[in-house]
Amino acid sequence: MKITLELVRQTLRETLGHDSFVAGFITSVQVDSGCPTAGITKEGQLSYNPSFVDEFVATKEDLFSLMFHELLHPMFNDFIHQSGEIENIAADAIINAVISSIYADQSKNGHLFRKIYKPKGVTGLLRSGSRMEQSRLDKVYDRLYVRSEENRKLTTGELITTLRILLDHQAVSGVMLVGTHGNSEASAESFPQEVLERIAYDIKRSATRTNSRSPGYSSCVIDLLMEALHTHLSIRRVILERFATNRKVDKFRELFRNRHICSSPVPIYPSKRDLVLLAAGFYPGSFHNAITRTGFKERGLAIYLDVSGSVNEYLPKILAILQSLKREITTIYLFSNQVFETSFAALLKGHIKTTGGTDFDCIAMSIVENKLDKIILITDGQAGMTAENHKKLRDIKLITLTILFDKAQTCRPFEDFGDIVQLADITH
């Protein structure tokens, strides 16, 4: 199978969405015989061993499994302190179970891992469809792959401890593991925290959608995945950064990647024109290399906070969450049935202005007046909006993140404009 950048991005977007950060993060694909299987660098370069790919990666589902395995690895790094063989086996067992079960359609039930690993012994933990009966590992395998009401929650730390007891280093010696492990140059362990957060957010969104549509796997698997993702998720970067806008001036720093062309006598990342010339037998005197640089730019966040009576119980928790943004957010919009823009510092001191009731029409008028394209809405969802104002927001192609409190499950007036999450989802 020939792995191209276009194929990689298309495969990721089909699962993570067309607005996926991860798909854009992968900037190049390189053949590397020195790489055992595959790896992704902090610069977004995907390297793969051609012999490994020729033997095992034959379909799009196999490619998805290989890439997603690499993306999930850094999510579990906080749990693997010694980075020994048994710890790596434990991490790969969870990752392969997540891919095989939660992403069953995309991975063809982990078809790649079933080709690589035998269905018995230690390697049986690394694939679905293993025959682990009468094995000391059968209970561990059941937690990962067998749906049962008796399966109590299992943490990553508990799985590592269990395998340390049940296995010895001789038993796991020589087991081929997919992806990079340890301090390799292509190891995802070196990713910047902002990148890890955005990868975690992409995966959480996709896993939540898939989980709601395709029940039937061990509940331990989704718990293990969410446990790992929550170690990287934060209100400060993962969620809010996607909703930064140029229409409001704050000091919220957004990570961005800038590609530009530079000339060099060495073909580092040659352009398509250079590749065509080389294929025609002409060696250019100077190559046009596409270089990617990472930087930050300051943008703003338009946060609308519901200050009607129902917010009082939850306001301390909301303010605690927003506290971390005090150096970056200048103002915030408070609303009940009117909108008041107040300084962020005044809000944190408890200076709140409200008119008591709640409606979303005042928000719609404020959004249109301020020409906002993205907003963050914190509310209990208990309010309405006229069809006329709803149409105005559709016409400007508004994008929203709605954060619900007070046990609310939905916010119908804003369902068409973006993600809706629970307050609990952003406090871990």
Q: Which percent bin holds the helix content?
A: 25-40%
Count of DSSP E strands? 11
Mean pLDDT: 82
- Class of secondary structure makeup: alpha/beta
| Biggest pleated sheet | 6 strands, mixed
Principal-axis shape: globular
Structure description:
This protein is α/β, with parallel strands linked by helices. It has 3 domains: 5-233, no CATH class; 254-298, no CATH class; 300-426, Rossmann fold (3-Layer(aba) Sandwich). The protein has helices at residues 5-16, 21-25, 50-56, 60-72, 85-101, 104-107, 111-116, 138-145, 156-166, 169-172, 193-213, 219-230, 235-239, 272-279, 315-322, 344-348, 361-370, 387-395, and strands at 28-31, 38-40, 45-48, 252-264, 287-299, 303-306, 331-335, 339-343, 374-379, 399-404, 418-422. Helix 15 links the parallel strand 6 and strand 7 (331-335). The longest helix has 21 residues, at 193-213. 39% of the residues are buried. The model is unreliable at 183-188 (pLDDT under 50).
